[in-house]
Amino acid sequence: MPTKVALPEMGEGVTDATVTQWLKNEGDQVKKYEPLVEVNTDKVDTEIPSPVDGVVLKIVQPADTVVAVDQVLCWVGEPGEEIPEDDGLPAVQAAPPEPAAQEYEPAAPEPVAAKPAPPPTPRPAAPPPVPTDAHLFGAVSPLAARIAADQGVDPAQIQGSGIGGMVTRRDVLAFIDSGGANQRTGAPASVPALKAAEVADPMATFISPVVARLAVEHNIDLNKVTGTGKHGRITKFDIERVIETGGAAKLDEIKPHPAYDVFKPGTVAKHTPVRRSIAKHMVESKHTSPHVSAFFEADMSAVFNHRKAQKNAFARQGVNLTFTAYFVKAVAAALQAYPVINSSWSDYGIIIHPEIHMGMAVSLDADGLIVPVIRNADQLSLLEAARAVNDLAARARNKQLNPDEVRGGTFTITNHGISGSLFATPVINQPQCAILGIGTIQKRPVVVDDAIAVKPMAYLSLTFDHRILDGVVADYFLAAVRQGLENGTF
């Protein structure tokens, strides 16, 4: 009898999802746990695997269809098996993502004549632990698993180079090209420098903000620069080498970022589920909260010095020490000092959240952005914060987040400065009280003790709900964030 594959529960409060693309066609062979279809919910793309070996007999829900939980996606069975007309059989579902901590949302009490008691503040369920190397060891990314299945390769034999030893698509391709040389049981083989077209890896052609800024400032055509970074990526060293040689690779014309080549004049770009979700939330936010913004400037010298001294030590533990980790620490400390910022509006009163769950906006280029949540950010060390930032950002870009990992945030930070922006007034991520914008860090002349000094500076913006906050407490909070960045105690 064929097996019915239905949409599993994707997280607390998630009732439906949009089918974005089928990874298998009718008639295709499929192995157990091999991805069948990609669905989108809460801006998270998730692959639904097959619960059994067999053949895809019938695809019930085409792409761009909104499907409810427990609704049939497809049928898998043996060739020639008939699909029963009775759709009441229990669905065989893929294992749903492990639920994360639920955001506390107390119900407003019934109005009474006497002065009402304050609402109860039970603590939410314990949040999932920050991923560690041991937690990720032996894991296989969904795309790597699909490639391995197509090529008849056992991922357990492959030495993973991803976070915590995760086997990535690059590892699988390298394993195939090397004839099975980089096995887990033997000495890991070095991953060959595959071309970007061969691995379809967007990071191979990724241009960092520093490289982009130097190229523009010195009128350099990046298409004519030979990259010496991993998989041919253009690094700051490559640009400086061109500058030192007289800027041989000049800019012939302005070229857009490759991610935006899909937008052509005279065409209509169809809305993706992510873009529709972003549009819906942004309009709702503006209609819900009166937005006001305040701006501060922070001297990043202490952060620069500390990062320079500790970056290699963090790298030896497999962690990239980014500036975002420092902002997570500084903002968490400021939220502890001013808990009213870590709040939400209700008709009864201001809900002060008992935990600090910090959203971190991650850009997906033309696909929009997504905001994974760092749970209990105030309890993390700098190393743990950096590891969480690395893990969530990488899995967000690789479409490996669970729906619950983008829910339950109590405050959000967005580093719009990675593309060179100085100022921004971000839209509040409802139902939160505020969002912090971080501008690009650049060296500027500033006055220090009546003398001109060159310092790495960054503008900070706080966009807040004026129903909850007045300008003075917003300024106090920004001053606390600035103090956390400048005092050098990380």
Topology:
Layout: E1 3-6, E2 16-22, E3 29-30, E4 35-41, E5 44-49, E6 54-59, E7 66-68, E8 72-77, H1 133-136, H2 142-151, H3 169-177, H4 196-199, H5 209-217, H6 236-244, H7 273-288, E9 291-299, H8 301-316, H9 323-337, E10 343-345, E11 350-352, E12 358-360, E13 362-363, E14 369-370, E15 373-374, H10 382-397, E16 411-414, E17 434-438, E18 442-448, E19 451-465, H11 471-486
Parallel strand pairs: 12-16, 16-17
Antiparallel strand pairs: 1-8, 2-4, 2-7, 3-6, 4-5, 6-8, 9-19, 10-11, 12-15, 13-14, 17-19, 18-19
Helix pairs in contact: 2-3, 9-10, 9-11
Task: Provide the descriptors you would attach to this structure in a database record.
single chain, 490 residues, alpha+beta, OB fold (Dihydrolipoamide Acetyltransferase, E2P), Dihydrolipoamide Transferase, seven-stranded mixed beta sheet, four-stranded antiparallel beta sheet, 11 helices
